[in-house]
């Protein structure tokens, strides 16, 4: 498998009130770097759309955070397409500090969708061959999520134009924004995540209204995003600053 690396300086507008890089920005820059690798290998998102009328969609993340990147910090992001089968592609991201320490890792699962039908399609070998990733028969089972209780914190959000990406649905990082926002300023300003499991079940389109719900149990939070059906789930482990 081929590894692609990029240096990145955390800008002011991607930093939160604590001076840490905003979590949605972490997902956005990860996808930016994976897109750059695809472009460098001649299989860019534009090529995929023009050749097959397909698009990549993230369906699950597993994130381990040792330390969040800080404002103005220069870090190195490494990514590689680890393996794939006929339905799923597995890609890893590793964020490194300037001294080489590992800041965080993201294990991600992607699928290909037909842009018109919005249905998942089989992964063609020629699409992923340039990444030199391993073809496997096994489907890697994701995290098992806990159902929320009847009494939870919740908040509604309306999907705006700026929440939509080029796949014409809500950008994956926006879900994380909705999920954590419900926890409130006091909690978010005094805690940082150390482990995140995040699963996308159903896309959300422009104009929808979604409800973000959370159960907070000690230093663990259990989340879902729902509208007409369940669209996303997450479980996060937090630590005090």
TrEMBL record:
Coiled coil spans: none
Keywords, comma-separated and alphabetical: Fatty acid biosynthesis, Fatty acid metabolism, Hydrolase, Lipid biosynthesis, Lipid metabolism, Transit peptide
Domain Acyl-ACP thioesterase-like C-terminal intervals: 151-240
Domain Acyl-ACP thioesterase N-terminal hotdog, residue spans: 3-131
GO molecular function list: acyl carrier activity; fatty acyl-[ACP] hydrolase activity
Keyword Transit peptide part of the UniProt annotation: yes
Family: Belongs to the acyl-ACP thioesterase family.
Record-given protein name: Acyl-ACP thioesterase
Organism: Pseudolactococcus reticulitermitis
Taxonomic lineage: Bacteria, Bacillati, Bacillota, Bacilli, Lactobacillales
